[in-house]
């Protein structure tokens, strides 16, 4: 049996100590295959973002196993590209310079930084804005730069935490289509956190529903909708049925917490 791209086994996470200790994740078991796109969904506070931050190496966990390609994850690394809801671009650098900055940190020489940055701006359809500063870019354009930067140093995985949550509906749909096209062309493993079930169904190979109190995995759904996907697929019976089933799982998990 092949080693999963990402392995999470029996993972527990708490914040605080003593009487103020709060368990936020309990017994998380989740494997992602190579090139698989998996979305985490669930009510606010169920630990989706905490789990993604642990995979990114930004938070430690209490007990359990965490590995990428069989190697333990102990800290942030270039094998994982991370995109947050906030754009995290350096305001004094242009779009191209923001990408070059990340590449320099990854050890690329100046010529390679320029070439790779241009390639990835083209990938996200921003070649025309290479010399513009973040303040001159729309929210969707800033997020495209952030995605280009995260992909530029060839990570093994892309970790995305509500990357389109701050965008208007039209721009959000455009970004979903762009991400789908990039994934279909370049095929990398993605762990994606979202509150939007429609977005999860549209983008994912598999959807993992998390419950709260403490955060844990409740149910997993294989999407099974053929690729390539375009916006029209959202109107199909298979798409709408899966969306209803995922919503139901989230509601039932929330009811169980209240009970």
From TrEMBL:
Keywords, alphabetical: ATP-binding, Nucleotide-binding, Transport
Pfam families: ABC_tran
Designated name of the protein: ABC transporter ATP-binding protein
InterPro entries: AAA+_ATPase (IPR003593), ABC_transporter-like_ATP-bd (IPR003439), ABC_transporter-like_CS (IPR017871), ABC_transporter_ATP-bind (IPR050166), P-loop_NTPase (IPR027417)
A molecular function (GO) term: ATP binding
CDD domains with a match to the protein in the record: ABC_NrtD_SsuB_transporters (cd03293)
Keyword S-adenosyl-L-methionine assigned: no
């Amino acid at each position: 049996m092949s080693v999963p791209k990402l392995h999470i086994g029996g993972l527990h996470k708490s914040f605080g100590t003593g009487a103020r200790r709060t368990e936020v994740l309990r017994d998380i078991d989740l494997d992602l295959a190579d090139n698989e796109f998996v979305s985490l969904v669930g009510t606010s506070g169920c630990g989706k973002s905490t789990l993604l931050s642990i995979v990114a190496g930004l938070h430690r966990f209490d007990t359990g196993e965490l590995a990428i390609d069989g190697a333990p994850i102990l800290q942030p690394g270039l094998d994982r590209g991370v995109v947050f809801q906030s754009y995290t671009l350096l305001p004094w650098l242009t779009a191209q310079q923001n990408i070059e900055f990340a590449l320099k940190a990854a050890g690329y020489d100046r010529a390679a930084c320029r070439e790779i940055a241009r390639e990835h701006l083209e990938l996200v359809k921003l070649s025309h804005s290479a010399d513009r500063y973040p303040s001159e870019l729309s929210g969707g354009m800033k997020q495209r730069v952030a995605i280009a930067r995260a992909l530029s140093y060839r990570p093994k995985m892309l970790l995305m935490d509500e990357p389109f949550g701050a965008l208007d509906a039209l721009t959000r749909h455009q970004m979903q289509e762009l991400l789908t096209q990039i994934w279909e062309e370049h095929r990398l493993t993605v762990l994606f956190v979202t509150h939007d079930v429609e977005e999860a169904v549209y983008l994912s190979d598999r959807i993992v529903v998390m419950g709260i109190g403490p955060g844990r995995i409740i149910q997993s759904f294989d999407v099974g909708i053929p690729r390539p996907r375009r916006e029209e697929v959202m109107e199909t019976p298979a798409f709408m049925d899966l969306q209803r089933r995922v919503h139901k799982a989230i509601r039932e998990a929330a009811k169980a917490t209240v009970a």
